[in-house]
Amino acid sequence: MRMPSGFSILRHGRRAAASLLLLAPLLLVQPAAPLLAQQASTRIAAVVNEDIVTAHDVDARVRLVLAASGQPPTAENVDRMRAQVLRTLIDERLQAQESARASIRVSEQELADNIKRLESQNSMGPGGFYAWLDQNSVPRGTAEEQLRANIQWNKLMRRRHARSISVSEEEIDEAIEKRQAAASVPERRVAEIFLPVENPSEEVEVARTAERLIEQMRSGVRFPQVAQQFSRAASAAQGGDLGWIQPGQLDPQLEAIVDGMQPGELSRPIKMPGGYYILLLIERRQPAGAQAAAADDQMVSLRQIVVPVPAGASPQIIQQRRQQAEELSRTVRDCADMTADRAASGSLSGDLGQVRLGDMPPRLRQIVASQPVGKTTPPLQTDAGFIVLMVCERQAQSKAAEKVDREAIAEALTVQRLENVARRVIRDLRRSAFIDIRS
């Protein structure tokens, strides 16, 4: 996925993952005026060295962002998003040009592997990503094109800079010790949005963008959706969620702000070196002790059946799907049945594999932790629809899993450092480029 150009506010690395980029349908061309539509779609919005960004590119991405963040495509919303979207598209053109100069290519297998990871991270079965696109009327080619660009940039950063970044065993040990110490320290679960300011002339517009995003979230738009589309920190892949934070892990200025917040509260824009932050305090928890920490290390094998609910479905349709999920929850007998019923419920269903209990969202972790093996959960309502889960196996973390855990920590620290490098690279590319913004 695209290497974000921001940086995480955490002082210690966390696992970074490719995010599910929520893509929206392209604007429909009205058949009554094909020539006018063609002219509008080819009008140049910006020239970026030898490439162009068309008005159609901007309009399509604006619709994408609005759909992903749950906002209606009103004229006011579209106008508010244009400047930010155009800047993002310009950066993507610069990244693509630099990748092409280095002969970086993306194979079909790399694309397929990336999609598979996205499905796993978003609790989808095999084929779930394409099913999600089809369900939301998103052209598959549009999604694949953006994913390829993100993979390409990530590969370039790793090829050029990964060898110069080393993570020692001592650093991994320190990260593990800090996590274990969390069992006796009060924690806060925090989410972030980071909007970079690359030069002083952009500061006013970025500050306005931060205010607009806060206004939209207070009007009902969900924080994770906004973070996935706008944040330039590594945490954007997880909807901005930084997980459980101990005292001392945040920058002191941000720490003081979080200390004064209540669960569910959204901060004002926070000006910091490099850009603006928006913070959300999700919840607080008191130390749970070593027993709870050990429980978090449990590995569970999960399967799910998803009864999808179309976007904008009527209350009658939602109730109908809820009843369908309740019937499945009552009639499924074992994990074999979960697989057999997948065909009837859609390709979002399937085997989720081995999952560490402590890596699950709090709501899901609470349910799975006490769920008997081989028994279905009541239907859980999510953005995808109604989900019925079954724990097929439960076991303590193995030595092999501990090795994977160390590898994940090393990868997170590497990604955090590559992220800072990527930010400098895109800033330098922008400074040396010919950029002519025409609309």
Automatic annotation (TrEMBL):
Residue limits of the PpiC domain?
Answer: 185-283, 297-393
Q: Which InterPro entries match?
A: OMP_Chaperone_SurA, PPIase_dom_sf, PPIase_PpiC, SurA_N, Trigger_fact/SurA_dom_sf
Q: Is Signal among this UniProt entry's keywords?
A: yes
What are this entry's molecular-function GO terms?
Answer: peptidyl-prolyl cis-trans isomerase activity
Q: How far does the signal peptide extend, from start to end residue? A: 1-37
Q: Does the keyword Cell division apply?
A: no
**Keywords linked to the UniProt accession:** Chaperone, Isomerase, Periplasm, Rotamase, Signal
Pfam families named among the record's database cross-references: Rotamase, SurA_N
Q: Which PANTHER family match?
A: CHAPERONE SURA
Name listed for the protein in its UniProt record: Parvulin-like PPIase
What organism is the protein native to? Stella humosa
What lineage, starting at the top, does this entry show?
Bacteria, Pseudomonadati, Pseudomonadota, Alphaproteobacteria, Rhodospirillales
